[in-house]
Design goal:
- By secondary structure, the protein is of the alpha/beta class.
- It has one domain: 3-Layer(aba) Sandwich (Rossmann fold), CATH 3.40.50.
- Helices cover 36% and strands 16% of the residues.
- The chain has 8 helices and 8 strands; from the N terminus they run E-H-E-H-E-H-E-H-E-H-E-H-E-H-E-H.
- The protein has an 8-stranded mixed β-sheet, sandwiched between helices.
- Helix 1 links the parallel strand 1 and strand 2.
- Helix 1 packs across helix 2 and helix 4 packs parallel to helix 5.
- The chain starts with 8 loop residues before the first strand and ends in a 23-residue tail after the last helix.
């Protein structure tokens, strides 16, 4: 699973701001990307828009979500919390054995009419842990990319993204894969954040950032300082 040569990234819910931004950055880095959506036509439109921004060499296609899952064993989930559980239940039969699911879902209170700068309590502990309960047995779930601004990702593709990505998973190999993907985005540093249970803390940072960005009219991310260089280079750090 460490070999990512010619391995497509299927971005499930890829027509939203976060999914489109990540797909854009990975296409800019030369990755093969599949945009997933409930509607094939919308996925194809988003893929076409990304190709136009990146250039003719961009390897981006659009598919319905189930087809996107069936086409790759590397999945990136970028949907609002209120749709996460239903979508994963729907996609369960299409997820390939041994797949890695990277989940950027954040249980924001705004999903039930509350404030976006607050998170909801999730019985499993976090949105990512909820995802781990819903996917087929043997699927590795990773929590990552919750704290990267969608506005920044969708900005000038030649600009660096000034943000660290904290990666949490119970599977060290899946952590490594997610960290490698994060590092493909110019300016991003990836950090092994430990077990999947730590995802609840990372998800809460998102709500804090939203509040800060509203208050200060910005698109801030996070940087973790004081760690050795090795912390940003491997997903196999000591736990």
């Amino acid at each position: 699973m460490n070999d990512r040569v010619n391995r497509a990234i299927a971005v499930i819910g890829g027509t939203g701001p976060a999914g489109t931004g990540l797909a854009l950055r990975w296409a800019r880095a030369g990755e093969t990307v599949i945009i997933g959506s409930r509607h094939t036509a919308r996925a194809e439109e988003t893929a076409d828009a990304i190709r136009k921004r990146v250039g003719g060499s961009a390897q981006v296609s659009g598919m319905e979500n189930s087809a996107a899952c069936a086409a790759s064993d590397l999945l990136m989930l970028t949907v609002p919390f209120e749709g996460q559980a239903e979508l994963l239940k729907q996609l369960k039969p299409a997820i390939r054995p041994g797949s890695i699911l990277i989940d950027a879902t954040v249980p924001l209170a705004a999903s039930v009419g509350g404030r976006a700068s607050r998170t909801l309590g999730v019985w499993q502990g976090s949105a990512a842990q909820q995802a781990a309960e819903l996917v087929p047995k043997g699927i590795s779930v990773v929590a990552a990319f919750q704290n990267v601004s969608a506005e920044v990702l969708n900005g000038n593709i030649d600009d660096h993204v000034d943000c660290d990505v904290i990666v949490c998973s119970d599977d060290p190999n899946a952590t490594q894969v997610a960290m490698e993907l994060a590092a493909k985005i110019a300016g991003v540093r990836a950090i092994d954040g430990g077990k999947l249970e730590n995802a609840r803390l990372v998800e809460q940072i998102t709500a804090l950032l939203i509040g800060l960005n509203i208050r200060h009219k910005g698109h801030g991310g996070i940087r973790i300082t004081g760690l050795p260089d090795a912390a940003y280079k491997t997903g196999l750090a000591s736990r």
